[in-house]
Amino acid sequence: MDNLKRRRGRPKISQDAPANTKAVLLRAGLTWLTTTGFNLSSLDNILRSVQVPKGSFYHHFDNKEDFGLQVLDQYRRYFENKLDRSLKNDSVAPLQRLKNFMADASTSMARYDYRRGCLIGNLEVEVATLPTAFHQAIIDTYHSWQNKVAGCLRLAQAQGEISPDKECQYLAEIFWIGWEGAVSRARLVSSDIPLHQFGQFFLQQLLR
């Protein structure tokens, strides 16, 4: 009798079942694009990985380009929140906040065995073959991230951690150029050593 009762009604929904098809697709897109890149990520493979039919995909996205841009936008907002958690943490000094961000990012890469990199860095490598709309989206994302690091460096100046003659906006741009290179090298060698090397070098330049 108990078995019959358990069989009646609708089957129990798995906790992993997609509650929102668009959100599921965006998460899948993030996984594929950070691992394989945009051009090598087949739409069929992405849809198959989450068992979503093409009809459902085109209900939410115009095409693969639209999909990629929306994945990029979601990643940008996710990473800005990640930056804010470290760089706006008033309980620690500004330079320690930057160290904490780098340590957190390094831990995240190790969690995925260095198979996944930064989506923006991946797209930047592919930029010559990407649709034009991606170019400005990538530039805008970098500007946003650079502004957050520049704000942290200005606070470090105000608190006497670094000298007042440092050009914080320029240094923030240099940080992201170097950090993305370190992320790529970390993927290549499957190690966090490049991340630590760049972090130490950058902080040494700040304190010179």
Please describe the topology of this protein.
Blueprint lengths: L1 H6 L13 H15 L7 H8 L3 H7 L3 H24 L6 H18 L7 H7 L6 H27 L9 H22 L3 H15 L1
Helix pairs in contact: 2-3, 2-5, 2-7, 5-6, 5-8, 6-8, 6-10, 8-9, 9-10
Structure description:
With 208 residues, this protein is mainly alpha-helical. It has a domain at 72-207: Tetracycline Repressor, domain 2, CATH 1.10.357.10. Helices cover 72% and strands 0% of the residues. It contains 10 helices and no strands. It has helices at residues 2-7, 21-35, 43-50, 54-60, 64-87, 94-111, 119-125, 132-158, 168-189, 193-207. α2 (21-35) packs across α3 (43-50) and α5 (64-87) packs across α6 (94-111). The radius of gyration is 21 Å and the shape is elongated.
Largest sheet: none
Report the average pLDDT across residues.
90
Percentage of β-strand residues: under 5%
Assembly state: single chain
CATH class of the domain at 72-207: Mainly Alpha
Helix content: over 70%
Specify the CATH architecture of the domain at 72-207. Orthogonal Bundle
What's the order of the H and E elements? HHHHHHHHHH
Round the Cα radius of gyration to an integer and report it.
21 Å
Which structural class is indicated by helix and strand composition? mainly alpha
Output the number of helix runs: 10
Total number of strands: 0
- Superfamily at the CATH H level of the domain at 72-207? Tetracycline Repressor, domain 2
Question: End-to-end distance, in Å?
Answer: 78 Å
